[in-house]
Write a structure and sequence with these properties.
about 160 residues; mainly beta; nine-stranded antiparallel sheet; about 0% helix; about 60% strand
Length: about 160
């Protein structure tokens, strides 16, 4: 699911509540996530200062494919939500689970490619990119996980694709 909220005066946020009343997101303006269960979800929009005029965009789609990578310290689950055969995809989700602590993070991202000779068309698949603030998570086509803080590499682990 992708949800995006824009408001005239940048004064609206939403909460996303699951069917079992768990708050999945609180006070955000956009999210991209894999829904944890079937059922009715609630999107609660509220103004941050006074009333708000807003536009709400919601997109729900089926997960087309799931891939799993394991590194020394992480299990990474990638869900591609794009039409089979699409060369590039802007609807990929990342769930990274720390094998040692059980902590996890969910991120939205896209595929990354080289560009063909025309400078526009995507060519060779390089992997996936996910951004969380000033951190970028790159999952390379060989299964390696690279994490950057701004432009500094802070983590590199070799990974293995699971069947």
């Amino acid at each position: 699911m992708t949800i995006s909220l824009t408001s005239l005066e940048n004064n609206a946020v939403f909460d996303l509540v699951s069917p079992n009343t768990t708050i999945l997101n609180k006070g955000v303006t956009n999210t991209h996530l894999v829904l944890p269960a079937n059922g009715d979800y609630k999107i609660i929009v509220r103004g941050t200062r006074g009333n708000a005029t807003y536009n709400l965009y919601v997109e729900i789609y089926d997960v087309v494919s799931t891939q799993i990578i394991t590194t020394e310290n992480y299990k990474i689950v990638l869900h591609s939500n794009c039409i089979e055969g699409a060369v590039s995809c802007n609807h990929v989700s990342y769930e990274g689970i720390n094998i040692n602590t059980g902590d996890s993070i969910q991120l939205a991202g896209k595929t990354i490619h080289t560009t063909c000779a025309d400078g526009v068309t995507p060519c060779r698949f390089l992997g996936y990119k996910f951004v969380n603030g000033d951190h970028s998570y790159i999952v390379q086509s060989d299964g390696s996980l690279l994490v950057y803080e701004e432009n500094n590499l802070i983590l590199k682990e070799e990974g293995t694709w699971q069947n």
